[in-house]
Amino acid sequence: MGAREAPGILGDFSSLAANGLRAVRSRLELATIELKEEKAWVLRFIVVATAAVYLLSFGTLLAILAISLAMPESTRPAVLGGFGGAMLVAGIGAVIWIMSAAKKRSPPFKDLIDVLKNDEEGLGARRAAGVSGASGNE
Questions:
Q1: Residues 25 and 113 sit within 8 Å (Cβ to Cβ)
Q2: What pLDDT score was predicted for residue 72?
Q3: Distances in Å between the alpha carbon of 44 and those of 20, 56, 119?
Q4: Cα–Cα distance between 25 and 22 in angstroms, integer?
Q5: Residue 107: which H helix or E strand, with range?
Q6: Taking the model in full, what pTM does it have?
Q7: What is the pLDDT at residue 6?
Q8: CA dihedral sign of residues 63, 65, 67, 70
Q9: What pLDDT score was predicted for residue 89?
Q10: What pLDDT does 110 receive?
Q11: How far apart are CA 16 and CA 133, in angstroms?
Q12: What integer pLDDT is reported at residue 131 of this predicted model?
């Protein structure tokens, strides 16, 4: 009689664990959906930040123009060339960094959801083996 109770308890425990993992996985999937919904806010934020960068860049350009006009005429090409080269190098570096960072990014919680699915399947297989082993003893 004690031998039959163990698979039943083990089956109940693995069923409970599988249900718990399903609940956790569904919560994580909901969190992922909510993160995707935040995409609109992030895009709006990026548009405003881009506009701010553009306006700051234009202001910097006007400041450089004012500085170059204040310089003697013979040094103006060197001043404008130096500032322009520095801005181009900084901009190209920023674009390269953004592209490399975007390629490395994976979906949020992807690894955790995959692990929980594997745990759920493992517990389901253990439960199925416990149930088939219990019916083979009868």
A1: yes
A2: 94
A3: 37, 18, 39
A4: 5
A5: none
A6: 0.47
A7: 52
A8: negative
A9: 93
A10: 72
A11: 19
A12: 58
Q: Which residue has the tokens 């019916």?
A: 135
Low-confidence stretches of the chain (pLDDT < 70) are: 1-7, 107-109, 112, 127, 130-138
**Residue burial 66-86, b: 16+ Cβ < 10 Å; e: rest:** eebeeeeeeeeeebeeebeee
Q: Report the candidate in 18, 35, 43, 44 with the shortest Cα–Cα distance to residue 116.
A: 18
Q: Give the start-to-end residue ranges of the domains of the chain.
A: 2-137
Question: What is the DSSP secondary-structure string of 41-97?
Answer: HHHHHHHHHHHHHHHHHHHHHHHHHHHHHHS-GGGHHHHHHHHHHHHHHHHHHHHHH
Distance CA 67, CA 58 (A): 14
Q: Tokens 């692990």 label which residue?
A: 115
CA angle 98, 104, 109 (to 5 degrees): 120
Q: What is the pLDDT of residue 138?
A: 45
Q: What is the pLDDT of residue 109?
A: 65
